Automatic annotation (TrEMBL):
Species, as recorded: Nonomuraea maritima
Gene Ontology MF: a single term: S-adenosylmethionine-dependent methyltransferase activity
Keywords per UniProt: Methyltransferase, Transferase
Gene3D superfamilies: Vaccinia Virus protein VP39
PANTHER family hit by this protein: METHYLTRANSFERASE, METHYLTRANSFERASE TYPE 11 DOMAIN-CONTAINING PROTEIN
UniProt superkingdom: Bacteria
Name of the molecule in the record: Methyltransferase domain-containing protein
Amino acid sequence: MGRSYDDLVREADAVSVAGWDFSWLDGRATEERPSWGYSRLLAERMAEAQAALDLQTGGGEILAGLPALAPVTVATESWPPNLPLAADRLRPRGAWLVADDDEPRLPFRDASFDLVTSRHPVSTWWAEIARVLRPGGTYFSQQVGPYSVAELSEFFIGPFDGSSRDPARAVKAAEQAGLQVVDLRSERLRMEFHDVGAVIYFLRKVIWTVPDFSVERYGDRLRELHDLIEAKGPFVAHSSRFLIEARRSGGTAA
């Protein structure tokens, strides 16, 4: 017999969702990883960079986990609960953390960086990225694709238009900003949620899945979901991811 609905809800609604570490879901939810291996590819590019900027770094987990950073490495983050987490991880690595307001304009001079990166950005400011890149510099990013976790969104809010994160739109926006897209890959990946607490934690953390989510507002649907998982097993959804790499023309990054 599984844990009670009330216990699962109480626990998941109280736990901290600061940072971008999903280890709380170990044993409670699973997600396939993209085949390209973002961290490995990022490490290769970081090892060759002289000045790097990581946008919307979250709690700094990805950047701090790299074997080496560029001699000048800067990260930005806007969400206050993430700032102390990112600072604790990045300062020992010699990286600078900038508290940003998550809106253009980026607080950096033109042509400051030969590498700009971002994993799962909420938004991508292509014109600003092009501005702060040096000639020959690269933007390298793994992003949430169209209709990601649509099954979960639709369970709570019904049909919706999840096409805004289409990779083709990203390519067009990059080219309009004067960047050349040199790599584009996309995949859909299986996710399983094994209890309603895992769903609550995920929705509290990945807030764009159900933008107005709260336990109180969606209590009836959460109860239905709990009963469904108890009767039929894990709730299955599919995440959407794409990898994009774009380069500023005009010489070498060094």
